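yo

u said u wanted the structure for the complex thing, so here. seqs first:
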Amino acid sequence: MHELGSPGPSAPGDSWWRSAAIYQLYVRSFADGNGDGIGDLPGVRTRLPYLAELGVDAIWFNPWYPSPMSDAGYDICDYRDIDPAFGTLADADALITEAHAHGIRIIIDIVPNHGSDQHPWFAEALAAAPGSAARDRFWFRPGRGPGGDLPPNDWQSIFGGPAWTRITEPDGSPGQWYLHLFAPEQPDFNWASAAVREEFEDVLRFWFDRGADGIRIDSAALLTKDSGLPDVAPDQPPGPAHPYTDRDDVHDIYRSWRVLSDQYPGRVLIGEIWIPDAARLARYVSPGELHTVFNFPYLSCPWDAARLRSVIDHTLALHALAGAPATWVLSNHDVDRIVSRYGRADTAFSLQQRPYFRGFPVDLELGTRRARAAALLTMALPGSVYVYQGEELGLWEVEDIPDELRQDPIWRRTGGADPGRDGSRVPLPWSGLEPPFGFSPAGAASDPWLPQPKEWRDLTVEAESGSADSMLELYRAALRFRRAEPALGDGPMSWLPSADGNSGVLTFDRAGSVCCVANLSDVPVALPAHAAVILASGPLTDGLLPPDTSVWLRTQPPD
Ligand code: NOJ
Ligand code: CA
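structre next:
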């Protein structure tokens, strides 16, 4: 049964997050309240009724803090305030209160691996001497080679180029280098420093005290590094074998965060960890650590029944060992939108291969059909589920953003080889027949920060509302049913034999009362015995389930 009790502050022992449907809200692109072309918190406040009607239990906000926006807010200057483009702390307080009144919990994004180069600590470090306490909060090191002209080691930035940038010392001489696993504007914090650890625990308390119901921990596997900073082969991508990824001592941090969060009933710690190895991923949800982690093995999986079944089985087995609920996620602000992915000849996804996927033609009709089927498959699985804003509208990856408008540092740092992530971050279409589609108010001074495709006139909330075949109505119906249905969310699941022994069909039972069938094969298949059809992602033909279609069946009414 869902344990959605009264929203914040939650009761002790409240584990709402085990079954929750969590909406990922990318503030910059959700709703613009003041007409400057950038989404903001007043805009979100006006749209809370939309999210309540959609049927989500929580919202995860991408970073909303003051930031120079070198990486869309993942470069933070002040972890205890709101960026003026998004609003004020008072707006955040009001938003938290209003969301709670709608029965919606709030999860905020904490970025502990790195700050902004405009963070006061970094300014202090630049002004201080090598070896000072101010520099020790980051990774400053002398360079190698004659005059220290070469970086301290061969690590590459995840966004392309070297992971080190040289500074000029206060006396004007060429100085030390600092580590940044992402852009140079995002210096890595040194988690061996007690000051860093204390600061972040204080930040956690700050937001929990303001009513935040949970945190999403950015780049959670990267925080601790081998202080010897050993070289790696430069062509080795970040991965489990890399010295800056997934070290044993990172788990100490999360154990102490768990002790802290347990002092606040019902709060959840969610790790963002891009590790393909499900066993290593599951270590983060060991008892006394994080509550959940994003399931990127599931997100990255191609639209293939055997592969999906294997990821689902691994996920459930490893989470069961840890006593943690699984999570299921199809897309987010870092990956290609799902209808585009599923409309390509290769339906896999990996961050490293974005340039490769770029060249593929997209069959949007096929991709949309599959995305609908995937939505029902995903929402029937045991655990919690994420919906990335716009997924519920069937938005596609905007692949033709003019180069001069692209904002993602990945685009620049790879010299355009990698298109980056802007295509999944285009402002939402709400209403009307032309841009800004209600994203900004009438008479807005500025265009949306990224241009919206004119074809999105058919994908606005207004156009899709009440249209029986729309993605939005499918999501609404599925989320509502899932929330009310004791057999869905957290709980047992078992595979059932598929019709005609077709290995391209995934059939599973939830608690003996709901059955989900997803047909990933290329032939229509018969349905198992059932009392009623609850919901289908597309029309059945002569009682058969067509290819790329899923259905939820009532097998037995609940007790
Ligand atoms: C993961 C975030 O999801 C991504 O958007 C960001 O660029 C990196 N972490 C760096 O913070
Ligand atoms: Ca705005």
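The chain has a mean pLDDT of 94. The CA atoms of residues 192 and 242 lie 18 Å apart.
cya
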